[in-house]
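Journal club prep — side note

Before the paper discussion, L.F. wants everyone to see what a predicted structure for a comparable chain looks like in token form. Sequence:
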Amino acid sequence: MRTILVTGATGFIGRNLLAELIRSDDYKVRAVIRRETDLDKRIEQVCGDLADETFLAKALRNVDVVVHLAALRPGKSGYPEDCWRVNYLLTGKLLEESAENRIEHFIFCSSVGVTGWRGELPMSENTPFDPVGPYHEAKAAAERLVLTYNDVLPVTIVRPTITYGPGDKDGLVAKIFQLVAKGVFVFVGNGRNCLHLSYIGNIVNGFSLILRQRGCGKTYILADEKEMTMRELVDFISTLLGVSYNKIFLPYRLAKGAMILYQRLGEKAPSTSLPKGTVESVDILSRNRRYSIAAAREFGYDPEFSTIEGLEVSASWYNQLINQR
């Protein structure tokens, strides 16, 4: 039985991955958390800070596989000041200690955002780095660092697209549900740009398949089968909620300029579709993004849920979330 250490265990992907791992008799699961929480009793909780070398050595003792999900994302406390420290430097410490402990497989969760928005579509693992913003810059640097360890530590890099589903509390899709429920949505541009999402069930299945592989320094994009336009996505969410909404179309340059101004003034954006008031969010809502999952298919990845099916399964969760706020 292999022991798997999961960092970022209380996050959206982390909790769902843990739930899947404990269904198998093949794994003993250990979760790195800051303080004890309400995880299944079959999960060993190790409480501490990854920056503490003594704690890190203890957490990695007798571990076979590391799944490194922990990250500091835009909009979270400490961002962007601590972004580089958490997303790059702590990844380096974990890699170093993992190599010393002869870990069999180190799986690093990155982001498709490391290739930016300007690549030829569909973007793939071979699309050059073009990160936008501190988060994706740190993730791109961390990817480069991870690959330097492959000779002494078998590694795999996973790049999920924007992930949604039950348990998502503050992701882009959760925000869109909440905004549509209020009866208005601001599109940046004409709303015809493509958005390629990932249902959480598909992502967990992808990680489960990777855990059965040997690390060999490869990178894989995980996503749903097909993309949707932003307009199609918002319209379908409106249908799921059973509400109509007012459409406002904001030119890209105006939205970008307004967001730069908000940031300089140290203020947040108004309650529109611009999440957390970041310049990057304007690109997230307006740029075309379509990704190839051909590489992931090599190890058997085949998204079980289409985006339409994933949204239908998730609708009750997002409805509950809306009613709680």
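L.F.'s comment for the group: The radius of gyration is 20 Å. Keep this in mind when we get to the figures.
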